[in-house]
């Protein structure tokens, strides 16, 4: 049980930076967002020590009137999130943590930090999930998904993240949803969905359509979106086709899960007006402005009574 004066230390771990916040029961950040280096290429012991230090640093910012319920972490996959075991390998980030039970390692380390021993509302606890799941929990508890009982939540950026929510709970199994709620690895056309519904999917489609002058690097999709907004016909067609592909991958799950809304987040969602209308398959679409803040808010929900199915 989580009490109203309990807070959660929330972390969104990326390959370059770690974003952190102290989240209250209403989903608000009680202190300004903190940003730390991820140090993703370091050795196992250095990384574990680094993460424990970040937790300790955030804990020092908690006011005396609040108790710490736990530490919620959005961590990049692949991972066994239920057990907290990192399965990341060959991605040039956190390779040294492959096979490490992050939940156990970090719980053991923060339990012996002298200054924190009296700050926990219960025993020290660490929970780990992927960023799309935490985005979904955060949006459905405190954001665009709050009015709805059933939602499909998507993050579109470097990759394609997804989560299915019913009554504030992650739905990870059953005939209505893909295994673990993950769409990215399902087969689609000549590859898998992640190959098409992602930043590289848009860049690949631009190449197939013969669009020239696309810069390499992180500004590629932003550049294409600007061209579409300036009325360049082929760029407009590019995003329309991307939207058609998104609808194509979602329709089977709209029919099986019957969501009341689709919530979009991630970098590509900033250009959602170019590839989705107000609805996909008659289901209203809502766009969230900030993936990281939503993921931090979702970390709080990991310690609420609502769980996962």
UniProtKB/TrEMBL annotation:
UniProt cross-references to InterPro entries, sorted A to Z: ATPase_NBD (IPR043129), ROK (IPR000600)
What Pfam families has UniProt attached to this entry? ROK (PF00480)
Q: Which PANTHER family match?
A: BIFUNCTIONAL UDP-N-ACETYLGLUCOSAMINE 2-EPIMERASE_N-ACETYLMANNOSAMINE KINASE, ROK (REPRESSOR, ORF, KINASE) FAMILY
Q: Which family does it belong to?
A: Belongs to the ROK (NagC/XylR) family.
Protein's recorded name:
ROK family protein
Record the organism: Paenibacillus dendrobii
